[in-house]
Design brief:
about 170 residues; mainly alpha; DNA polymerase, domain 1; 2 domains; globular
């Protein structure tokens, strides 16, 4: 008779992800490991508040798409994180879910839905100052809904373009 494979608990998956996968298999830098650790610290605090589950009681299927979206919205709206920070946190969660999918195939449906979450729509690029001058907004203060005006945040030659801004 064959032996039945045991499904790892969430806590085991997280520990293996950090100690075996990131450090030994992927040879991730200590900066990456620290960033991913901070992501999980924040995520575990969020799940404790919103699900009422301690980290030791969590299951992989608890990390569903609605929880992750709520967490990402919490980062942007309550913690006032930038879009880049939000996307970095999402990348850490996706990396973990990719790893977990191979270790816990029973949670594939939940993992697939959670992995379908998209990064936020901010595009960062470097523009020459002449290109920045040519940049125009597709909406004006008079025509923008609720007085919202898209803008360019400029730091030297690095610019962030949001929404429907475009170059001619």
């Amino acid at each position: 008779m064959g032996t039945k494979l045991r499904t790892p608990h969430f806590a085991e998956l997280v520990q293996e992800f950090f100690s075996l996968y990131l450090v030994e298999q992927r040879d991730a830098s200590h900066h990456t490991v620290a960033s991913y650790r901070d992501t999980f610290r924040l995520l575990l605090q969020y799940t404790d508040r919103h699900l009422g589950k301690r980290p030791s009681d969590l299951e992989l299927t608890d990390l569903d798409a609605s929880l992750i979206l709520g967490f990402l919205n919490h980062l942007e709206n309550e913690r006032k994180n930038s879009v880049a920070s939000r996307n970095a946190r999402l990348a850490a969660i996706r990396s973990f879910l990719n790893y977990a999918a191979f270790r816990n195939p029973g949670a594939l449906a939940s993992i697939q839905r959670a992995r379908a979450i998209r990064t936020s729509a901010t595009i960062s690029c470097c523009l020459a100052s002449s290109a920045v001058k040519r940049c125009r907004l597709s909406s004006t203060p008079r025509t923008a809904p609720h007085g919202v005006v898209n803008g360019i945040t400029r730091c030297g030659r690095r610019s962030t373009i949001r929404g429907r801004e475009c170059l001619r």
